[in-house]
Amino acid sequence: MNSISRRQVLAGAAAVPVSALAAANLGPRAAAAQTPMVRRADVPEVKLTWLEGKPGAAATSTWGTPWAQGAVPADQTFQLTAADGSAVPVQSWPLAYWPDGTLKWSAHAVAADAPADAYTLAAGAPATPATVVKVSDHKDYLDVDTGVIRARLRKRGRELISQLWRGDVEIARKGVLVNLRQERIEEDEEKTAGRDRFESEIHKVKVEQSGPIRAVVRIDGVHANKRGKSWLPFTVRLYFYAGAESVRLMHTFIYDRDGSKDYIAGLGIRFKVPMRDAGYDRHVRFVGDGKGLLSEAVKGITGLRRDPGAAVRAAQIAGTALPDPATWDQRVTTRLQYIPEWGDYSLSQLSAEGFTVQKRTKKGYGWVPVDQGKRASGLGYVGGVSGGLAFGLRDFWQRHPTQLDIRGAATDEAEVTVWLWSPEAGPMDMRFYHDGMGQDTHPKQLEGLNITYEDYEPEFGTPYGISRTSELTLWALPATPTAQRLGAMADQVRTPPQLINPVGQLVGSRVFGGLFAPVDRSHPVKAVIEDHLDFLFGFYQKQVDQRHWYGFWDYGDIMHTFDEDRLVWRYDVGGYAWDNSELSPDLWLWYAFLRSGRADIYRFAEAMTRHTGEVDVYHLGKWAGLGTRHGVQHWADSAKQQRISTAVYRRIYYYLTADERTGDLLTELVDSDRTFLVLDPIRKIRTEPYTPDPHALSIGLGTDWSGLAAAWLAEWERRGPKAEVARSKLIGTMETIGAMPNGFVTGSGLYDLDTGRFAPVTEKTVSVSHLSAMFGLVEVCAEVIDLVDDPAFEKAWLQYCRLFNATRDEQTAECGAHFGNLILKQGHARLTAYAAVRLKNTDLASRAWREFYTGDGYAPTLPWTSQRITSTLNPTDAATWVSTNTTALYGLSAIQILALVPDQIVAP
């Protein structure tokens, strides 16, 4: 399928022509049949680098590495060496397997005090770490010891981390989740709604990994108040690395209300921090924009009317222990009791463009404004010269409204709260945004769809079951850190260090079906296409910032369609607003990264995956496993479908990072075929009566089956608890699709939940939608055809690939009827290219290039530039010819055609 030989890939060379396919690259299934299992000594080495370059301080990282089928035994052990050849301790475990039992993805974790520029991963025995992370299991708690810090994790109660020590010094205690609930939202000038405080209530604690380099503890529970009421289920994972002084915390909660009552007025995590030092040796730090620093002492001795001495002042500024007060100018020493102690500090980031800092002496007394800034890093510290706690929230300003609070720093025990939702911002408004406008029947709703592109249905625009995951880091420090150290910590909060594989390894392993190749500008036409791809990504990257696509629920998504008259995106027009993965921008971005290794594309795709996998998908309730179509609110549209929740949008990030939360999302979808019992995706347009039957569920062979197949594939290759069932359903549906006279052209089938197969079809049926293949079906089919030997299924898919952009006469001759008026022909050009390679047909290869240029997408004659607009609220760049649907399909078609038929270029 992919015309790149493994030797050429590893050398970074260009692809071979289609004519060489049979000899050069038979695909992993065929290759595995001809190649005996390799010995451990034959496992190739992989050169690893840091995504953004070597970190400036101690760093930890977990990543996944792909392997070609048959290349690595399932029980392979690995060693890691730094660029200078020194051995680096590494922890490894399997993520996925090929059908022949060899390793497909391996996961690895490293903790480096002094990170190297690059590393080499190879077969061998891992080096023994000088310090290991240990998990000790006791009746009521777990103790996790990194060799530097130790945490006590309770199995029941409210405290996730009951104590955190560095050596014998207790740095923090009583770590709980905190939530403020407000019954109703106040309107206009009304200010009467009260707030109720909830804290974490632990239900289950599980050790998922126990070292030697990395330990992971999962904690599940709910938020509960003193009266026994509970809501907002949560999952918190705590990550500990050998020799590390930090704890990484992944916080996920599920919103389990319909949005009409019970509002989140504050959501965060809170710790108590013992304060042992004198007031003048206690410190508060906030890192603001860049590495700007608020550096304060609880009891300041600078700027006084009397000078304690230069050495004393310098020590306080540096955050080191002050000399004995007996050595100071006694005019200061004898009056220390009259210097205020500032115990409370607050940094609030209520928008993407501004934060404020204020402080006060203690509760009940006035706040004093300190300063303002634009985009805070999300890092703070409270403690003293004998130790303290640093705390950081990733995407702090991007996910506003956020807040960092320090209370009681002048007492024996300070309180730190990292607010994921700031209580100063007002309650989180999850209400639906309009009253339905009389759309109480399906005909009326279809009329609404025809004017605003919103698929409305009463009671469907609910946030019940959506979720959000946030990432925090805690440091147990021996003393107040220097400004330089705080700056480095802030950098790691903003951009956690990430090790990545070389592009050659990602391409050569063919783990995602061989649909991408390294960026290649060796031909003038290729160079132009690469320029266009770069323009499109750069344009959206700028739009995120210029249009302020930020906020707690919004960050990570992009808009669907531009309004050429208002010169803004159609943020308030039905289905034209938030994109919610429409036509696979997720895949465009991930494939763009896989072929380039670019850090900026990776971070963009990462934010989108975090958003679309959590916010656009239901994780609780009757629609669990389904996602919501594009709209003004991420949950507003009544179309709840597999095409948005599909695992194909999450798998790439999961395998690149081994991220457990993303793994949860894949697991959730394994049984999502059962959602068709409760919701018919095409209920509004059926012409015949239909009642869901578990033995005859109507399931589309495009957007529906591709989502199910992606989930089954992930479970099978990960060897999850339902792997055999998933494999059976995947292969069963493939066999029964292949047995249909018109295969994928049939459009839909009757699926049996018990057998995992479609009912036999005896007559040729034609039902083709332009959307069927545009939500991951292309990518799923490329993978399963490589993995499963089913010639009938491959024939059915190649038929669809050949005929979608073919003439009506060709469609009728083969299928009995033509496909109707179809659009998205440029997006489907990659299907033609795929068929060209599989069938070794150079005519199809040339046709694919013509379709790419002359289809209904972006033409080569477009301006491929943006214009500066000053008439909007803020100056922005606009390209009125750009739409996200077309961008995603252009990007995927360009990437895949360049990989599949690079040497059959037809000039535009």
From TrEMBL:
Domain PcRGLX/YetA-like central beta-sandwich residues, every copy: 133-490
InterPro entries, sorted: PcRGLX/YetA-like (IPR045793), PcRGLX/YetA_2nd (IPR048330), PcRGLX/YetA_3rd (IPR048331), PcRGLX_1st (IPR048329), TAT_signal (IPR006311)
Keywords, alphabetical: Signal
Annotated signal peptide: 1-22
Record carries keyword Signal: yes
Record-annotated PcRGLX/YetA-like C-terminal alpha/alpha toroid domain positions: 496-904
Protein name: Tat pathway signal sequence domain protein
Species: Paractinoplanes rishiriensis
Lineage, top ranks: Bacteria, Bacillati, Actinomycetota, Actinomycetes, Micromonosporales
